[in-house]
Specification:
Layout (H helix, E strand, L loop, with lengths): L5 E9 L21 H11 L4 E4 L4 E2 L2 E2 L3 H14 L6 E10 L3 E6 L16 H11 L4 E5 L20 E6 L2 E2 L22 H6 L5 E4 L22 H6 L11 E6 L4 H9 L3 E4 L5 E6 L2 E2 L3 E3 L2 H5 L1 E8 L4 E8 L2 E7 L4 E8 L10 E2 L5 E11 L4 E4 L2 E4 L1
Parallel strand pairs: 1-2, 2-5, 8-10, 15-23
Antiparallel strand pairs: 1-11, 3-4, 5-6, 6-7, 8-9, 11-12, 12-22, 13-14, 13-16, 16-19, 17-18, 17-21, 20-21, 21-22, 21-23
Helix pairs in contact: 1-2
């Protein structure tokens, strides 16, 4: 996929030592000083991210954690490392609501106050505050199906929630029963929170991955637990089973590397999620790119033409097309890239389960899931057809 777009990689969910109640002291990278600025440096210089966002906790258990001085430090660090077109650094924080879910908030500029859950107790309150302070900001739900603090889809706001984090160090939250969902012993999953539940309710959002690793590392760096390369001190420091695939990454197809262009691309849902490996993926339906919506005419009701492309630095196992929560077709792969075309001739009006939009129109969505031989995965954002 080109169309004048570039694929940029980054982590929109990084924690510094400002999140001190959850920070894993002793597990941070060698030489790391614990600061928000060093998180951006690590993301840019050590793991080659194009963009980064340090999103420390406003509160822990809804008690204020971040101080006013620390918030100023977070904002200053983002401005220091925001150097387009070489690297983009976003100011942000984690809005920690135990009733309606956790969001990391990514701002378009640094002239904003802290909008914590202690002052803005519901997502609606948060979005109203953003209307005043930064209408271009985004709020990204994460660990959406984690029991005790799952995402509440009834609070969905398409303006501020164009993308959802479906994989991180906590696990993968595409659908219940997947082999990499959250640790069932330490922090079980909540069936109502998975991404496919939201899509099944007629909501439209794209996918991103995020790190959420509480030791300053960006993009799941060095967290392939099955590789045998994990230092023993990390293993000793793990209190619970982390996602064996590591933290996630966000891929954004944008025209250029600036805050504005990346935020615009996320609003258009031109995003992919990966489990910490830079696996390129894209899907289009009848020429409409992922994230897009199609008002189906008579010909599209009869058949839809799908194109999927994937490429990685490792052998691919399969490429799957998901339609309304079910695998429509699976293609076996044998190399590091794959390009497939498929015509779905199943009548649009007969697709099950039937999904209806908020305007009570029948809806069908498609997205691609790419699986590598090493089990790492990538997901494209969906394309929607409205009957």
């Amino acid at each position: 996929m080109n169309r004048g777009l570039n694929l940029y990689w980054g982590d929109l969910h990084i924690h510094s030592a400002v999140s001190r109640r959850c920070f894993k002291f002793g597990l941070e990278p060698r030489g790391y000083d614990g600061s928000p600025a060093d998180c951006h440096r690590y993301a840019r210089d050590e793991v080659g991210m194009d963009f980064s966002a340090v999103t420390d906790h406003d509160c822990t258990h809804e008690k204020r954690e971040m101080t006013a001085d620390e918030w100023e430090e977070v904002l200053a660090a983002a401005d220091e490392y925001d150097r387009p077109p070489h690297h983009v650094a976003f100011p942000g924080f984690e809005y920690s609501n135990r009733r309606q879910g956790h969001y990391h908030v990514v701002f378009s500029h640094g002239d904003v106050p802290m909008l914590g859950v202690d002052e803005f107790p519901t997502p609606t309150d948060l979005w109203q505050a953003l209307n005043r302070e930064d209408p271009d900001a985004l709020t990204i739900p994460h660990h959406i199906a984690r029991r005790g603090m799952p995402n509440d889809w009834s609070y969905f706001n398409p303006r501020y929630e164009p993308v959802v984090e479906i994989c991180s160090i906590w696990g993968c939250y595409e659908h219940a029963g997947n082999p990499f969902e959250c640790d069932p012993n330490w922090s079980a999953s909540e069936p109502s929170g998975f991404a496919r539940v939201g899509l099944g309710r007629g909501l439209r959002f794209g996918f991103v991955g995020g790190g959420d690793i509480h030791d300053g590392r960006a993009g799941g760096d060095c967290f392939d637990w099955r590789s045998g390369k994990v230092p023993e001190r990390w293993r000793q420091g793990a209190r619970y089973r982390r996602n064996p695939l590591g933290g996630g990454l966000a891929g954004i197809y944008a025209e250029k590397l600036t805050r504005e262009a990346l935020l615009d691309a996320m609003r258009l849902r031109r995003t992919i999620a990966t489990t910490g490996r830079r696996t390129e993926a894209s899907i289009e339906v009848d020429g409409t790119l992922m994230g897009g919506e199609i008002d189906a005419d008579g010909s599209q009701i009869e058949e839809r033409h799908l194109k999927v492309f994937a490429r990685s630095d490792s052998t691919l196992r399969s490429i799957e097309i998901i339609r309304n929560g079910h695998i429509l077709i699976r293609f076996r792969c044998s190399g590091e890239s794959g390009r497939i075309e498929f015509v779905d001739r199943f009548p649009l009006t007969d697709v099950t389960p039937m999904i209806r939009s908020s305007a009570d129109r029948p809806m069908v969505y498609y997205y691609a899931r790419v699986i590598r031989e090493d089990d790492h995965m990538a997901w494209t954002s969906p394309v929607w057809l409205l009957g």
